[in-house]
Design a protein that fits this description.
The chain has a domain of about 150 residues: Gcn5-related N-acetyltransferase (GNAT) (Aminopeptidase, 3-Layer(aba) Sandwich), CATH 3.40.630. It is globular. The N and C termini lie far apart (about 45 Å). The model has no long low-confidence stretch (mean pLDDT about 95). The protein is an alpha+beta fold. It is built from seven helices and ten strands. Bound molecules: coenzyme A. The site of coenzyme A has 19 residues, from helix 3, strand 5, helix 5 and helix 6. The site of coenzyme A (COA) has 19 residues, from helix 3, strand 5, helix 5 and helix 6.
Amino acid sequence: MATTNTRQKRKRGTPTPIELVNRKDDAQFIADHLRPSSPDWNKWTHPKTQEAYGLSLVGAGRLSEADLAACLGLVEETSRADYEPSSMGWKPGQKRAEMRSAELRYLLVRNGKGDIRGFTSLMPTYEEGQPVVYCYEIHLKPELQGTGLGRQLLEYHEHVARHTPTVAKVMLTCFLSNERALAFYRRRGFAKDGLSPEPRKLRFGKVFVPDYVIMSKGVVNVVDDENEADAAAAASS
Ligand SMILES: CC(C)(COP(=O)(O)OP(=O)(O)OC[C@H]1O[C@@H](n2cnc3c(N)ncnc32)[C@H](O)[C@@H]1OP(=O)(O)O)[C@@H](O)C(=O)NCCC(=O)NCCS
């Protein structure tokens, strides 16, 4: 989920570096930004059952209705209990619309029968003016939790961030009630971001206490180095 304004800044006539990235088709996005370290990146074997799973990347606009329904079902299965008592509430229609946001890309995890058993979604975007890769969702069926797959999926967010011009962090939002996920993110180097809301006094003596935290992890962007290396290779050929 994303809680703050994720709309991109637009300068008339000059697309931002992030807008240019979001216009790419999925194959180009994988090649330029996901940049998996192995051609077998789309194959994953369960460490305990040895069952084979497949990974694929697809933009929200190309996600089939059935796949969107499966992803929404997974969010409901793993996280409705966190949404329901929260300030956001569980609003499946709203969540569905957010999940169709044009710039989102999905990494889907399917079993041998083609059923979605896990997914994560991400968006290169501007958050309060900062270029970030926002992790919108990460959800695994119970059989895939505690297998190292969650860590692998989160690492893909860092890959995209490192290889996307101007981006220097991965950002995400987590309910404070979701202690397992909070601990998982902390172990992966995420910490509370400066954009995360603090408790504040409202009028009539009421106090706003946030029930979620915005976390982020800084990454070293390598796009300039890659461009220099490409230019040097082109000059010497
Ligand atoms: C949040 C979530 C994606 C995290 O996934 P996870 O299953 O805890 O994470 P991993 O798959 O990386 O597994 C974690 C542990 O599995 C263990 N593990 C078991 N086999 C492993 C293997 N072959 N390789 C690596 N780790 C392995 C490790 O001890 C690892 O612990 P570590 O983080 O200390 O390294 C998952 O719990 C989930 O889907 N939760 C429900 C939905 C949810 O809450 N989403 C977040 C919303 S904000």
